[in-house]
Design brief:
Blueprint: E1 2-3, H1 8-15, E2 19-24, H2 44-55, E3 59-64, H3 69-76, E4 82-85, E5 90-93, E6 96-99, H4 104-121, E7 128-131, E8 136-139, H5 148-164, E9 169-173, E10 176-180, H6 187-201, E11 207-213, H7 219-224, E12 230-234, E13 244-246, H8 249-261
Parallel strand pairs: 1-13, 2-3, 2-11, 3-4, 11-12, 12-13
Antiparallel strand pairs: 4-5, 5-6, 7-8, 8-10, 9-10
The structure holds magnesium ion (MG).
Magnesium ion (MG) binds at residues 25, 27-29, 213-215.
Length: 262
């Protein structure tokens, strides 16, 4: 895996004359990783760069986040870009609005899991339960490492029967466990869907997808674009489906500056 800037001239050649579809994760990609999700605030500079990119007539931006749609839209606060929340279960943007329909039975299960998690983990410092409407996240970044096995065991005890009956799915992220609807839909599926839609709208133009993300859940998108576009992992190089890496969100910003000038 090579550093993105090492191959920048090649990337520039690949992007030349193409319509660029820039897919971006939010936490850890556009903002540094922080202790609690509400503290991951996007800088004015990053926002300015995203705006400049979105105004280019050969570029479209989509933010693909695990956050709830309302939350991610509020955090970024820009028009003229596509937002996808809950790892693709929700999509909203210019001329597009879609949300996966879930059953009332699933919603009931989610509520029940939330109540049980609260009851059994309320004594553990640092546990954060985030209700994202279509999914439920258990964050444990701030939990004492000695208590982690207990927290994870409780989580699995609560969810195991629902999981066995295929009523829910479980997703593992960075210091987070998530309960999701039992559907085959992830960041990889949603980016392929958005790309196909864009290609249809831009009939004739060559659309090149670029995906930048830092999390385990971004691997689905890296894999989906392995032969179709350019994929960039944010963080230290490691086994990944991504072609390139950038060290941190500051380097992501620098890449935006370069693309604006391409
Ligand atoms: Mg992330």
């Amino acid at each position: 895996m090579r550093h993105t800037f090492y191959d920048l001239e090649k990337i520039k050649r690949d992007l030349k004359g193409k319509y660029i579809f820039l897919f971006l994760d939010y936490d850890g990609t556009l903002t540094p990783i922080v202790k609690t999700p509400d503290k991951a605030i996007i800088s004015q500079e990053t926002k300015r760069l995203l705006y400049a990119l979105s105004e280019k007539n050969n570029c479209r931006i989509a933010i693909i986040s695990g956050r709830d749609l309302v939350d991610i839209k509020k955090m970024v606060g820009l028009k003229n870009i596509i937002y996808s929340g809950n790892h693709g279960l929700q999509i909203e943007g210019p001329k597009i609005k879609h949300e996966l329909a879930v059953s009332s039975g699933y919603k009931k299960i989610l509520r029940s899991i939330k109540i049980q998690l609260k009851e059994r983990l309320c004594g553990i410092k640092g546990v954060l339960i985030e209700d994202k409407k279509l999914s439920l996240a258990l964050h444990f970044r701030l939990v004492d490492r000695k208590q982690l096995p207990f927290v994870k065991t409780v989580f699995h005890e609560i969810i195991i029967l629902y999981l066995a009956k295929n009523k829910i799915k479980i997703k593992y992220g960075k210091e987070v466990l998530e309960v999701r609807p039992p559907v085959q839909w992830d960041k990889g599926k949603v980016v392929l869907w958005l790309l196909a839609r864009q290609k249809f709208a831009k009939a004739g133009a060559e659309v090149l997808p670029v995906y930048i993300g830092d999390d385990i859940t971004d691997e689905d998108a890296f894999k989906a674009f392995q032969r179709l576009g350019i994929t960039i992992l944010v963080g230290k190089p490691k086994p990944s489906y991504a072609h390139y890496y950038l060290k941190n969100p500051d380097e992501v910003k620098e890449l935006f500056r370069r693309i604006i000038k391409f």
